[in-house]
Amino acid sequence: MRYESLFVAGLGSRLPRPVPIDEHIADGLYDPEEQDETGQLAVTIAGQDDTQPDMAVLAGRLALERSTLPAESVSLLLHAVTAHNGLDGWNTAAYLHRQILAGGSGLAVEVRQLSNGAMAAIELAAAYLTAGADREAALITSADRFCAPAYDRWRTSWGLVFADGASAAVLSRTGGVARVLSCVTVSDPELEGMHRGSLPFTAAPDPAEYPLDFRARTLDFAQHMGLEETGRRMAAGLRAAVTQAIAEADIKITDADYYVVPGFGRRLLHRECLDPLGIPIDRTTFSWHAQVGHLGAADQFASLTHLSEAGLLEPGQRVLLIGIGGGFNWTCAVLNILERPHWTY
User: pLDDT band at residue 15, thresholds of 50, 70 and 90?
Assistant: First the structure.
């Protein structure tokens, strides 16, 4: 979808202290051979007080403050989450609504689209805002902790290290530091079994399945669909989303000054993102993610926050945001930077 009046007005993140990977290699938690493939140098690991909802609150408050918009102008809050979000049987989005927006009259909804949740939320927010003339702004938040017993952040999945943290963005119809030129999401549900394998459904979480083993599930799924076909479909889905998004933004893929990519390790990032698109790693956010890890759905807005805080965004630049989530779904958004963010350090 091409947009004429959709803007990024504010950005924020809340990341725990990064811990050097070498410490975990020495403890036997992470294999040096895997580090050679991922290029991971550090990972953000939540402390006892870094709860998922409260990290999202801090990121959301920062994004709202930076937007300079009043809380009452935000008519929609979308909260993307990948893993357990603090408490079962509880409405996380309503908590964030109360804590960030002081219980305003808008709508709060949780989004479960795995690692592409926050990116997919851009289209949802845009559709909601354009459906009513009185709807000015939307807030997208995301937060996760990938910790035991459910996750082994080092070995649950191939090619990446799961990290803890939160990020947020305020989208506005009235202005901001960047204009969203376009956003496109593509899905291929034939690949949903990659995160399921042949496991049966259960009535409640089964601790016997902890820690989650996405490696085993993928190999299980490979008995149904070969890895070569899986790779072909994943590359096709990504290319379809990016090709349509850049066409609607009227740019070429090589026009982008930055590519904001998922927080995958180097080898996985090349296979699932860079090589299918033919884009260079040195113009991506990989070097930042190598110090952080994979934040689930919080990847893109966290790394965009980093670019804005570091003074790397200048008027006239084009930025491609790329999201990849299990299911499988891909989102690409194209931004045109309008002004240097006032919160640049």
Answer: very high
What is the Cα–Cα distance from 94 to 297, expressed in whole angstroms?
19
C-alpha distances (whole Å) from 332 to each of 123, 181, 243, 286 are: 10, 11, 9, 17
For residues 291 and 277, give the distance between their C-alpha atoms in angstroms, rounded to a whole number: 24
Buried b (16+ CB within 10 A) or exposed e, 199-228: eeeeeeeeeeeebbbbeebbebbbeeeeee
279 vs 114: CA distance, rounded Å: 24
Element (H, E) at 65: helix 52-67
Judge if 128 and 42 occupy the same domain.
yes
Number of structural domains in the chain? 2
Range in 5-9, 205-209, 229-233 with the lowest mean pLDDT: 205-209
Cis omega before residue 264 (within 30°)?
Answer: no
- The percent of residues above 90 in pLDDT, for the chain, comes to 96
245 domain-assigned: yes
Residue 115: the pLDDT is 97
Supply the CATH number for residue 218's domain.
3.40.47.10
105 pLDDT higher than 80: no
The whole-model pTM stands at 0.97
* Domain match, 199 and 312 both: yes
The reply to whether 76 and 189 lie within a common domain is no
DSSP annotation of 177 reads: S
Give the pLDDT confidence of 76-93 residue by residue, as tens digits: 999 999 999 999 999 999
- Domain span holding position 309: 181-337
How much is the CA Rg of the chain, to the nearest whole Å?
A: 19
163 and 189 belong to one structural domain? no
Give the pLDDT confidence of 214-227 residue by residue, as tens digits: 999 999 999 999 99
From 177, 195, 229, the end of a domain falls on 177
Residue where one domain finishes, among candidates 162, 177, 192: 177
- Give me the DSSP letters along 83-150: S--SSSSS-HHHHHHHHHHTT-SSEEEEE--GGGHHHHHHHHHHHHHHT-TT--EEEEEEEE---TTT
Q: Looking at the structure, do residues 38 and 50 belong to the same domain, yes or no? A: yes
